[in-house]
Amino acid sequence: MKSALVITLLQAGSISAIGAANAQESFTVEDSIELARFSDPYPRGRGEAKLNISPDGRYLAVVTTRGVIASDQLESKLLIFDLSGLAKGGKSFEPDSFQPIRSVTVSGKVRVYAGDYGSLISSVKWGSRPGAIYYLAEAEGGRRDLYRLNVDKDRSPERISDGKSGVASFGERSGRLVFASIPPYVERPGVPDTRQVNASAYDITGANMAQLIVPQQWDKIGQMNPDLYILAADGGPSLVGPISGAGMYPAKYTELLDPAISQDGRHAIVLATAPASPPEWQNYERIPGATLATGPATEEGVRPHFSWPIIYAIADLEKGTFEPLANAPITQLLGYRDLPAASWSEDGKWVVITGLYHPLKANGDHAKKDRRPCAVAIVEVANKGFSCLLESRSGLNDKPFEYVSGVRFIGKAQLEVMWSAKGAAATRLVYERKNKQWNKVPAAAALAEKAPAKLDIVLKQDFNVPPALWLKQAGKPDQFLWTPTPDVDLSKSAVAKEFVWSDSTGHQWKGTLLTPPGYERGVKYPLIVQTHSGYIPNEFFTDGAFTSGYAGRPLADAGFVVLQMHNRSETWMTDQEIPAFQAGLDAAIDKLADMGLVDAARVGLIGFSRTAHHVRSVLVRSPDRYAVAAITDGIDHSYMQELIWNNGEAPVVYGTQPYGPGLKKWMEEAPGFNLHRVKAPLMVTAITLGSVLMEWEVYASLKLQGKPVTFLYIPDGQHVLQNPLERLASQGTTFDWFRFWLQGVEDNSPDKAGQYESWRSMRSKACAANQVSQALC
């Protein structure tokens, strides 16, 4: 990337680039990988990004992350900015004058599952003591260490954890630090969680396929049993106790909730393994296919891992004891989206928690409302009295889909709930306790959401302008402060904007549409449709929904029109999932073709994870509609996947089991039985060995039929790819695949000679046999 500094200004409610010079000709996959991005504040969420300002208002903490292809590592930086100069007011800044006063850099490969655009530095929190900031830094092998940095002193960060055990989560209050620590993994021979018959054989009855094909990975998950430690203000860490039963799987959920410490520092709310899973818990409502293990946790041989219930527990930090806060599991285990959160009242009498079920009495009649998930609940600590304030509406099929995005006590008697809906800013609800009940109070009676800020610093971005920090000033234009991407100029790149359309049922869709640079009216461009949850209003658009297999802006800069579709998740796990998707997809293609933008005979599809199933299905249902496709690390509700993984989803979708009379319906509807209809050349990508099994049916069937199919395998990647060379392989090959088939363009790099030799052979044979659209020949 060779370009000049670009300053962004707010004009008429949107951000635009000015002062651009030496704009780069195109934005490449390599550019996307090496682009420095904000990790904190996180720019991909809906609504205003939350900035990490110290309690005294003196400092701002920012985390950025970029990939370095040459070293195949990520580089994450914790940057501390001094706000005192801004607070004085009346100062005008040059574009490069607002710079960090302290920085910490961590380099390496991401091993901890990180989601979108992961970072090696995470969970950055200001401490209660002035100038103290805590964070987790990922070390080699995926262990996360806990550090403390004193901004006011010229010292290196201090590692608090032991450097052997990883830290899943932590909380600090009044100088007392509480953290959940995962002991190091000890590799063991054999097949985990099965009975060894003798030195040469195992009884694998009831085993999961993962136990057999990746036994060490499975065993590592089973050993993730966090212990809870406390660190007093002036002492070393002392063990409170284990928060999980042997062999359970709480680590994934432990990371979702940082220990919430009471005002007096004596207690903490954490997530812990349930000591038992009583039969009445099977009565809870759940999304189709979700399961919950049952039985006592101490039973010999019981290691249900993912399906074992997790509860809210209260830890006595002085006695070193645990007990359930509410005798009910969290709802995320059974498919709901309200993330765990906890907050104490000032007097320590009440705790607000989110995303759990109502406690049920054993052998009792359970009313429907008691079996429903609760989004927000209040618990009276002394007697464990439970009150559900808001029922959850965060299931896949809930209409409208709404979820809790934050809770906290404000003042002495009020409770704040941030209630969010898909595609909209959060709504603030406030409750107050009067006459022994918690009641919603009018907005006029609610305490202020927050104290008036001395400074109003915001993160701004637009479809075509990278995120940057800005200072808002009353009566003055907003002032640019800082960006991690001062050299990025996309004035000659594709133009992204909102695209709205309606399908044949009247449902309105929204997506992000990119038109190529130098777009010429009347020219019909090839179209790439990227599927999955990728539409975020005004988000700076680079790859699309995710990194695994997506290359949105690079493809647009190479001469494609690119549409990033959103999901209709309310149809998932129903018989309308595929028809609804195809209705939206076809309506988008038709509208763009009617506008004269695209060539309807040259349409490419990209599917990932769940939408790999959507793409596979429409290739079977309408083989002449879509010219080329690529799928990555996805499900397909096929016969083979159901037999291997048996997750229970496909029988729900098809309404029957894959045997006996039900097999006929599977043969009619499951993509794997109908791949003979597919005409689109297909690129398949598997991430980890387990994914190879997931994708093998579609690959092997098409290969057996002599149809054009290529298979990319990334052995050590995450579901959402993070590390530079893994991303380059996935996104770069996707880019090459669509350019080859839809534009007839090849990369002349010598390293790719074998790739194109194989693809040319596929094309020649497929065209001769009339197996693909003639528009590709």
Largest sheet geometry:
8 strands, mixed
Tally of contiguous helical segments: 15
**Helix content range of the residues, please?**
10-25%
Uncertain runs are 1-22, 299-304
- Give the end-to-end Cα distance, rounded to a whole number of Å: 35 Å
Backbone CA Rg: 27 Å
In percent, how much strand structure appears in the residues? Answer: 25-35%
What's the arrangement of strands in the largest beta sheet? 35-36-38-37-39-40-41-42
Please state the overall shape, judged from the principal axes of the Cα atoms. Answer: globular
Main structural class:
alpha+beta
Query: If you average the pLDDT, what whole number results?
Result: 85
Structure description:
- It is globular, with a radius of gyration of 27 Å.
- The protein has 777 residues and is of the alpha+beta class.
- An eight-stranded mixed β-sheet has the order 35-36-38-37-39-40-41-42, sandwiched between helices.
- Helix 7 (552-557) links the parallel strand 37 and strand 38 (561-565).
- It has 15 helices and 42 strands.
- It is 18% helix and 33% strand.
- The two termini are 35 Å apart.
